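Students often ask why inverse folding is considered easier than folding. One informal answer: many sequences map to the same fold, so there is more than one right answer. In these notes we will look at a single instance of the problem. The structure comes first.
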């Protein structure tokens, strides 16, 4: 592989790391060709991009990402054979795929993941990654919490307004009598 070809691979990978805020690094060593093909097929069906890349390329590409520190990956995650999974829309999709694939083949391992520049290292983080809420889900929860008190106030004012009108009507009827 020429220096230019290596540079192109690193540049493409760096572009993905900068544009997609979440990615998963896996290890699939020891898998047969059929098992790797099955994994790739599952990735394709779910819109997940899966690439096997040299660790040095991943490291160099991560160094170009502004505003994020991926150095904790260097000692633990970027060892052995590495594959990178990207999904542009759903941060949970790769984690769900890994968990489902592991039901039939335990050779696929999660080495690490980055979700909005938060690092998750180790296979034991898989369930945590699946249960994480996306940014949109969190914003929706916050908006719902903020709207709840406002709805209660409006409801109280509307019901209280009817009660107040009833009290005033009763008082005015008493005065007339």
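Output (designed amino acids):
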């Amino acid at each position: 592989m020429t220096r230019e070809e290596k540079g192109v691979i690193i540049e493409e990978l760096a572009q993905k790391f900068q544009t997609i805020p979440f990615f998963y690094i896996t290890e699939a060593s020891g898998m047969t060709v059929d098992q790797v093909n099955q994994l790739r097929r599952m990735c394709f069906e779910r819109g997940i991009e899966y690439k096997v890349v040299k660790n040095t390329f991943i490291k160099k590409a991560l160094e170009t990402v502004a505003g994020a520190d991926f150095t904790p990956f260097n000692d633990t995650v970027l060892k052995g054979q590495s594959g990178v999974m990207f999904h542009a829309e759903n941060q949970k999709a790769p984690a769900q795929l890994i968990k489902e694939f592991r039901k039939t083949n335990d050779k696929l391992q999660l080495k690490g993941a980055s979700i909005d520049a938060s690092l998750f290292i180790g296979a034991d983080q898989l369930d945590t990654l699946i249960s994480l809420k996306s940014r949109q889900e969190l914003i929706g929860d916050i908006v719902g919490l903020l709207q709840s008190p406002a709805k209660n106030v409006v409801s109280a004012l509307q019901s209280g307004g009817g009660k107040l009108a009833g009290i005033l009507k009763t008082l005015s009827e008493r005065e007339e009598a």
